[in-house]
Amino acid sequence: MNAIVKNQMTSIIATVANDTPSFQKQDLAKKYELTNEMKTVKDLLSDRVRTIYRIRALRDFGNVKADDLGGFIEHEGNLSHEGNCWVGGNAWIYNDAYISDNAQVCGQC
Fold this sequence. Notes:
With 109 residues, this protein is of the alpha/beta class. The protein folds into 2 domains: 1-29, no CATH class; 31-106, no CATH class. Helices cover 24% and strands 30% of the residues. The protein has 2 helices and 6 strands. Strands 1-2-3-5 form a 4-stranded mixed β-sheet, with no helix packed on it. The longest helix is centred in the N-terminal third of the chain and has 18 residues, at 2-19. The chain is globular. It starts with a helix and ends with a strand. The relative contact order is 0.15. The model is unreliable at 1-27 (pLDDT under 50). This is Phage related protein.
């Protein structure tokens, strides 16, 4: 009985995965990229010098349009690709800071 249930579940999962590739691609698509524009900033807590990069939107979401320039982040772990969250203006996000959901951070918006 367990083997039958396991096989049925595997088939269901495979069917769902195969039936929705465009939905999955749309949902998991990156919404921004790091540009070549960068700054080096000194982390006041650790005295470590960090490199932060300006971001550019790759698609429309929330109030952000494709090709809009945003603020600066150190790495993609600072800003989620999900939701409508955004770092705008000249805001700097680095170290372990994480922006997600619908949070909007801006230096001068």
